[in-house]
């Protein structure tokens, strides 16, 4: 795993946005895997500002989002579709037909997951998957468990994940859906390139476990160690435990200071 540490989350976001802008120029038909949550907000902000400067053309690009709540209308402010529309899609020239989500309102949720996997295959696979990480090590909604499901599937959300999302549901836990659909760990690991972003002190411990610990389904992000093109982008706060333990710059991962 390659580990890059940035002085701030803005610098991290600017660097990753720059890389996506370059990739998009080289491959206009880029297939991006996208995450929601707090962490990628500065990235989407940076991508929007580069687009406004006329630096990007998304008209041939395709996106697949990692996850979506079950039973939530696309227009609901808590849906991940709304999040993407608000923070990226309405600001850039992506073709709506090429922005893909798992549909949490589908009648047959298993068939919906199969349909989503087939769409990824039809698009030629994901070129670059952007990930955040939960404080418990989840990626997408693949929560710590004795077993993980490989492909897109229905997930029962943990209390912690529901609490983390309450802000989008009037701050009321009872309104947060109990289930979601999520890409599986194999869906994620099949992306050609993976970039995991983590910022803030609350992510320091899980980042250290993810990068240096054993591969364990109890830390879903640790499975990323199996992929041969993964980069972990951290701000100083999220890198604190790695630094404290002297675990960067040695045998695990290449360290790139920015
Ligand atoms: C969201 C997703 C989640 C988040 C994770 C971190 O699409 O896939 O795994 O990346 O919960 O969330 P934040 O960034 O809000 O700390």
Explain the overall architecture:
The protein is α/β, with parallel strands linked by helices. The chain has one domain: Rossmann fold. About 30% of the residues lie in helices and about 20% in strands. It has eight helices and eleven strands. The chain has an eight-stranded parallel sheet with strand order 5-3-2-6-9-10-1-11. Helix 1 packs across helix 2. The longest helix is centred in the N-terminal third of the chain and has 18 residues. The protein is globular and about 50 Å long. The mean pLDDT is about 95. The structure holds fructose -6-phosphate. The site of fructose -6-phosphate (F6R) has 13 residues, from loops.
Q: What would a concise description of this structure say?
A:
This protein is of the alpha/beta class and 258 residues long.
Largest sheet: 8 strands, parallel
Distance between the termini: 17 Å
Which molecules other than protein and nucleic acid are bound? fructose -6-phosphate
The tally of structural domains comes to 1
User: Could you say which overall geometry the principal axes of the C-alpha atoms support?
Assistant: globular
Would you list the SSEs in sequence order as H and E?
EHEHEEHEHEEHEHEHEHE
What structural class should be given to the helix and strand makeup?
A: alpha/beta
Task: Report the C-alpha radius of gyration, rounded.
Answer: 17 Å
Which regions contain 5 or more consecutive residues with pLDDT less than 50? none
Which percent range fits the helix content? 25-40%
- What's the β-strand tally? 11
Query: What's the rounded overall pLDDT mean?
Result: 94
Percentage beta strand: 15-25%
Q: Can you count the helices?
A: 8
Order of strands, widest sheet: 5-3-2-6-9-10-1-11
Provide the CATH top-level class: Alpha Beta
CATH architecture: 3-Layer(aba) Sandwich
The CATH topology comes to Rossmann fold
């Amino acid at each position: 795993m390659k580990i890059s540490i940035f002085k701030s989350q803005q610098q991290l976001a600017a660097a990753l946005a720059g890389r996506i802008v370059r990739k998009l120029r080289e491959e206009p038909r880029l297939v991006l895997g996208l995450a929601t949550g707090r962490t990628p907000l500065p990235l989407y902000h940076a991508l929007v500002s580069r687009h406004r400067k006329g630096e990007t053309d998304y008209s041939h690009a395709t996106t697949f989002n990692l996850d979506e709540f079950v039973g939530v209308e696309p227009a609901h402010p808590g849906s991940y579709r709304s999040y993407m529309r608000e923070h990226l899609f309405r600001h850039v020239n992506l073709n709506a037909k090429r922005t893909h989500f798992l549909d949490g309102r589908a009648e047959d949720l298993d068939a919906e997951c199969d349909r989503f996997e087939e769409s990824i295959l039809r698009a030629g696979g994901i070129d670059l998957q952007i990930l955040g990480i939960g404080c418990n090590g989840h990626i997408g909604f693949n929560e710590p468990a004795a077993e993980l499901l490989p492909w897109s599937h229905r997930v029962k959300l943990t209390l912690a994940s529901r609490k983390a999302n309450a802000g989008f549901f009037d701050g009321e836990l009872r309104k947060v859906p109990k289930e979601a659909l999520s890409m599986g760990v194999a869906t994620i690991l099949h992306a050609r390139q993976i970039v995991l972003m983590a910022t803030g002190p609350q992510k320091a411990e899980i980042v250290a476990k993810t990068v240096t610990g054993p591969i364990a389904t109890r830390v879903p992000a640790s499975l990323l160690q199996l992929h041969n093109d993964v980069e972990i982008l951290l701000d100083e706060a999220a890198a604190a435990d790695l630094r404290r333990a002297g675990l960067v710059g040695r045998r695990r991962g290449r360290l790139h200071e920015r």
